[in-house]
Amino acid sequence: MPLMANGCVCCSLRSDLVYTLSALLDAPRPDGEGPLQRVILECSGLSRPGPIIASLADPELARRGLRLTVVCTDDCARDPDALAEMDEAMAQFGAAHRIVLTKTDLLPDGALDARAVRAAALNPLAAVIADPDRRRAVQAAFAPSQGVADLAGLAARMLTAGVQGVAHPRIRVMAARAHAGISWPEFSEWLDNLAGLCGERLRWAPPSARRNA
């Protein structure tokens, strides 16, 4: 069985993560069982998703055609304003493809919809799963991704639902569209400048990143 050393997967164990996943995918499967269909990497509430996503984009893993989905949980027992002050929590919300509301039974009557709207405001391109039924919530959280079409559908629902009217004091979601005929060197230089300006404040979701693991 492939094992990882003890440590933080988002900093000190990034190369070990690539090696362990490769070993897991290459390991012989029991007779009669097909290849692995899903790998779930559970991280602590203090993990920053950016370095982990960067590790999963390593050429050794990228050539396998894995599809990545980032799932973030929103603990309804926590004060949403307190969560908004945690940099790690905001990084997780910003990188998520799906936000799952947990401990919904602890919310006051009628407060679930408002909490879901709050979560959607943190990341309008994420699918918010606010089902009180835990079994259905888990199934929705780990359902196969629909890729780019799913991203377009989420964006369309965001616009029609008026989520943009619920502003967050620290997070802004922006979209950029390249003009026709732009060269790769020009686009690459723009990305470098944007990354240099924003640093760790930047959380972006290119369509090619919407893959399941």
Termini gap: 19 Å
Q: How many whole angstroms does the radius of gyration measure?
A: 19 Å
Total of DSSP H or I helical runs spanning 4+ residues: 9
The assigned structural class equals: mainly alpha
Low-confidence stretches: 148-152, 206-213
Question: How are the strands ordered across the major sheet?
Answer: 1-2-3
Main β-sheet: number of strands, strand sense, barrel status? 3 strands, parallel
Order of helices and strands: HHHEHHEHEHHH
Extended strand count: 3
Q: Could you tell me the strand content as a percent range?
A: 5-15%
Mean pLDDT: 77
What would you call the shape?
Answer: globular
* Helix content bin: 40-55%
Domain CobW/HypB/UreG nucleotide-binding: 4-129
Protein name: CobW/HypB/UreG nucleotide-binding domain-containing protein
Pfam family, one: cobW
Describe this structure in words.
InterPro entries: CobW/HypB/UreG_nucleotide-bd, P-loop_NTPase, Zinc-reg_GTPase_activator. One of its GO terms (cellular component) is cytoplasm. This is CobW/HypB/UreG nucleotide-binding domain-containing protein. With 213 residues, the protein is mainly α. The chain has a three-stranded parallel sheet, with helices on both faces. Helix 6 links the parallel strand 2 and strand 3. The C terminus is likely disordered.
List the helices and strands and how they pair.
Blueprint: H1 14-26, H2 49-56, H3 59-62, E1 71-75, H4 80-84, H5 87-95, E2 98-102, H6 112-122, E3 127-129, H7 134-141, H8 147-161, H9 184-198
